[in-house]
């Protein structure tokens, strides 16, 4: 009986359609920006802001192939540090390239290896000024050591910059070029 009562009180008629619920303004139905801000192109720029420096690490600046790593290990020069071991070899290209390793044997678990690689990558990326001061472009391979996990970015960054300064001071030339300059 209750179901009969419920069905009797339900209206099947639809309400009449309304034309437009909103009032039109003089601009018509133009879209309003979703935010209370002007579009990015119309925002005012900061007057005294310094120019943005691009410190990104593009794909061309990375050593990706095993053969490149092996070539740097085999023919390059080695620098030992507390947080990393650095191998360098004069590059064929016009930019410094970097390859980073963090082995399971040296570092341990995956999250520790990822953190070590991230710290080394940041050290390289933030040292762009020091690297540009070096006359020759190099392929770099940075091997992480376990001690890199015990600190923040400042220590590996300082160590990498010190190694870059040592390389700049010596300005390591390819061996064939060194022989030619000694003969002159």
Report a brief summary of the structure.
It contains 6 helices and 4 strands. The chain is an alpha+beta fold.
Question: What does this protein look like?
Answer:
The chain has a domain at 59-170: Ribosomal Protein S5, domain 2, CATH 3.30.230.10. It has 184 residues and is of the alpha+beta class. The chain has helices spanning 2-8, 66-75, 110-126, 128-133, 154-170, 175-183; strands at residues 77-80, 84-90, 97-101, 138-144. Strands 1-2-4-3 form a 4-stranded mixed sheet, sandwiched between helices. It is 36% helix and 12% strand. The chain is elongated and about 90 Å long. It contains 6 helices and 4 strands, in the order ααβββααβαα. Strand 1 (77-80) and strand 2 (84-90) form a beta hairpin.
Task: Please write out the topology.
Layout: H1 2-8, H2 66-75, E1 77-80, E2 84-90, E3 97-101, H3 110-126, H4 128-133, E4 138-144, H5 154-170, H6 175-183
Parallel strand pairs: 3-4
Antiparallel strand pairs: 1-2, 2-4
